[in-house]
Amino acid sequence: MARTLDDLAALSGVSRATVSRVINGGPVSAATRDRVLAVLEQTGYRPNVAARTLASGRSGVVGVVMHAAPRLLFQDRYFSQLLEGMSDALAEQAAGMMLWLGSRSKEETLDRILSMDLLEGVIVSATYLDDPLVDGLLASRLPTVLVGHRREDRAAGYVDVDHLEAADTITTHLISVGRRRIGHITGIRGTVSGEDRITGYARAMERAGLATDELIVEGEFNRQSGAAAAAELLERGVDAIFCANDATAEGALETIRGKGLRVPEDIALAGFDDLDFAAHLDPPLTTIRQGVQQQGIEAAHVLFQMLKDPGGGPRRVILPTELVIRRSTVGGVQVR
Amino acid sequence: MARTLDDLAALSGVSRATVSRVINGGPVSAATRDRVLAVLEQTGYRPNVAARTLASGRSGVVGVVMHAAPRLLFQDRYFSQLLEGMSDALAEQAAGMMLWLGSRSKEETLDRILSMDLLEGVIVSATYLDDPLVDGLLASRLPTVLVGHRREDRAAGYVDVDHLEAADTITTHLISVGRRRIGHITGIRGTVSGEDRITGYARAMERAGLATDELIVEGEFNRQSGAAAAAELLERGVDAIFCANDATAEGALETIRGKGLRVPEDIALAGFDDLDFAAHLDPPLTTIRQGVQQQGIEAAHVLFQMLKDPGGGPRRVILPTELVIRRSTVGGVQVR
DNA sequence: TCCACGGGTGAGAGCGCTTCCAGCGGCAGC
DNA sequence: GCTGCCGCTGGAAGCGCTCTCACCCGTGGA
Fold first, then answer.
1. Could you tell me how many helices (H) and strands (E) chain A has, helices first?
2. What CA–CA distance (Å, rounded) separates A182 from A70?
3. Cβ of A81 and B74 within 8 Å?
4. Which of A80, A288, A329, B34 could be cross-linked to A268 through a Cys-Cys bond (beta carbons 3.0 to 4.6 Å apart)?
5. Measured between beta carbons, which residues in chain B are less than 8 angstroms from residue A91?
6. Virtual CA dihedral for A266, A271, A274, A277, nearest 10 degrees?
7. Which nucleotides in chain C lie less than 7 Å from some protein C-beta?
């Protein structure tokens, strides 16, 4: 089996340079091209990635960085869905993807990625507003796409959903079903999604002329914090709770029922994410569906775009969300 | 900032070869070594991976292959935990990891991995007994470690847990609490874990002199199939069900309670995996805990071992499992 | 004092590929 | 018929590193 360009050149009776041109789309006469292509086909030749990278700087390998705390990382399906989406989209055009999870410090991870000198671009999932890893990548000359983050000030591409708008929508839904004392259990402070959802909630409340004093309690995107925060809100008196994500809502639900209260008759409950279990809660949870897998796919496409047309400026994509109304906010009526 | 070996050589007043020796541990006088190390430190030099790979064949990059159907892939935390374990272990010694999920056909994936010519070794998570991807990797000269699979016939390293023994243990536990008509809802046929768990179950039953006729129903490792299979088993009459995994058990639980039966009074229920939710079911589920993350870590270590000592023959690791007894098999008594 | 030896070092040849540059032949224009 | 141009092609120079080989020099034995 032919392994190197020289072998192929010999087999097809042309020079190595010409074979390289055929592979990379350089100017070659039709006759020569056909001949070489035939040999290429028949030998099943694949270029050596290391050599190609060394000579040209293009490797076809892109990096994916998901530097989150282990307990956050794969706790829900967010990162895995993202990964699946990216993998599918990258499979079409890239040679492979290198993955960095949070096994090292951010500085160390950044250092390794940059010094690798192998990557053509990076997709980084950033959950926190401030992230030195993101800063470092953006400061480098490595084409970078952010997922779940927005930086207006830089030449970075990004993909995100409009948390603010979605939070506004679901809060407005709660208002529309007659709730007035609507509490909010936040996500982790300092995260993009956490902060944006707070803002969206506050905006909807304000527009409706409703107060939010004492109605915002800090959570941590998980069941335990949801349960604790819900207890606090119940004490302060609420008729609805919008939780920063589904896991938080699950915790809140436990607390609410533990106190002998009914959902949604006494307390309407809403989440965010529409994870698998949301539809299986009792009652099924009203929530916001965001196409996480689609975000992964889009991120890959944005990166390809940036690689293909480096001068074209960064591309920004905001994906739509969907309000999924279930019985936790509109009891009695059978929805979905 | 110094970027190439030549720069470093100039800076430290030695030849490129000597700098390379310092980096790679060749014979160098102490004085020279110290001098070069100082420069190395101060410049923060990192070797170019592509060039190093091209010249030596060693890249420090290992491949991780998880070629499963999307619905299987990250449905539960199995693959993500595996990934986290590997990532942590690889971080210590490898430059990076390339990931392949099931976005392409197995043939295409295999082809890409092999032609990449960049990887030092591969860790492949194989769920099915027969897998052309595994065959192809083993047939190549690429050092390969299997996770969740055993091949006695080849020079492959592997890491696995003893499903058979574990299934025997949990079945024996059901017997020891007085059950006699113990049904088994299998995993997907043809998977290593599915088949081994059947065998373990059958072995325990046989040893106790209990029949298994009509007591084995095929499942698919998920809730839906568990619910359906349980219905069938209940019709045939059972006093206990051992499910091939926790998700299956969750489905079975729904069916059992749907028929107005009590767990464990009427039907004792056992699962396998000890996923997060197992402890939160009502009643909490007796199951087998397997250290998935640990499997990932071990797999990385086995691979490093093989890379360090290629002649040393493959290493095989079987990790222990743990029987976690909860109220789904021993109601009344408060366990855990 | 001479020779054999060996640890430490540098020169240089690649690894497989891309890409610049020069050259070749054929065609149009004069 | 000769020059000029242009499209293709091959030669060759690297990309940054590893590793073999030869060499240098200092040491110990004869």
1. 13, 12
2. 32
3. yes
4. A329
5. 103-104
6. -60
7. 7-12, 14-20
Q: How many other CB atoms are found less than 10 A from the CB of residue A166? A: 23
Nearest by Cα to A78 from A199, A223, A247:
A247
Measured CA angle at A297 (ends A292, A303), to 5 deg:
125
Diameter over CA atoms, chain A: 84
**Residue B64 pairs with which residues in a beta bridge?**
B99, B123
The DSSP symbol for A152 reads T
Residue A278 has which token pair?
A: 């949301």
Three-state DSSP class for residue A210: coil
Q: For the CA atoms of B139, B80, A106, A104, what is the dihedral angle to 10 degrees?
A: -60
Check whether A152 has a pLDDT greater than 50.
yes
Orientation angle between helical segments B5-12 and B30-43, nearest 10 degrees = 120
Distance between CA atoms of B160 and B296, rounded to whole angstroms? 10
pLDDT in tens, B75-129: 677 888 888 899 999 887 777 899 998 878 888 888 888 877 788 899 999 888 8
* Cβ proximity of A252 and A231 under 8 Å: no
Band (pLDDT 50/70/90 cuts) for residue B42 is confident
Higher pLDDT, A139 or A165: A165
Contact assessment for residue A129 and residue A192, using Cβ atoms and an 8 Å cutoff: yes
β-strand A157-161 against A144-147: which pairing, if any? parallel
pLDDT at site A335: 43
- Element spanning B83, H or E: helix B78-93
Q: Nearest-CA neighbor of A234 among A206, A209, A253?
A: A253
Distances (CA, A) of B139 to B114, B121, B154, B184, B314: 11, 13, 9, 36, 14
Q: What is the DSSP letter of B67?
A: -
Q: Which of A215-224, A314-323, B151-160, B271-280 has the lowest mean pLDDT?
A: B151-160
Task: Please give, rounded to a whole number of angstroms, the shortest distance from the CA of A95 to a CA of chain B.
Answer: 7
What is the C-alpha to C-alpha distance for residues A28 and A14, in angstroms, rounded to an integer? 11
Contact B103 A87 (CB under 8 A): yes
- Do residues B98 and B64 lie in contact, with contact meaning Cβ atoms separated by under 8 Å? yes
| Contact between B199 and B164 (Cβ < 8 Å) | yes
Nearest in space to A185 (alpha carbons), one of A129, A236, A224, A241: A241
Tokens (6 digits) for A171: 């809060």
The Cα-based distances of B126 to B61, B81, B107, B133, B191 in angstroms read 20, 15, 15, 9, 9
CB < 8 Å to A61, chain B = 98
The helix (H) or strand (E) run that includes residue B122 is: strand B121-125
Q: Which nucleotides of D are covered by protein (CB under 7 A)?
A: 7-12, 14-20
Model confidence at B334: pLDDT above 50: no
pLDDT given for residue A258 in this prediction: 92
Highest mean pLDDT among A135-144, A202-211, B24-33: A202-211
Q: Distance between CA A196 and CA B195 in Å, rounded?
A: 48
Are B98 and A61 a contacting pair at CB < 8 A?
yes
Query: Please, what's the b/e burial string for B89-121 (b: 16 or more CB within 10 A of its CB; e: otherwise)?
Result: bbbeebbbbbbbbbbbebeebbebbbbbbbbbb
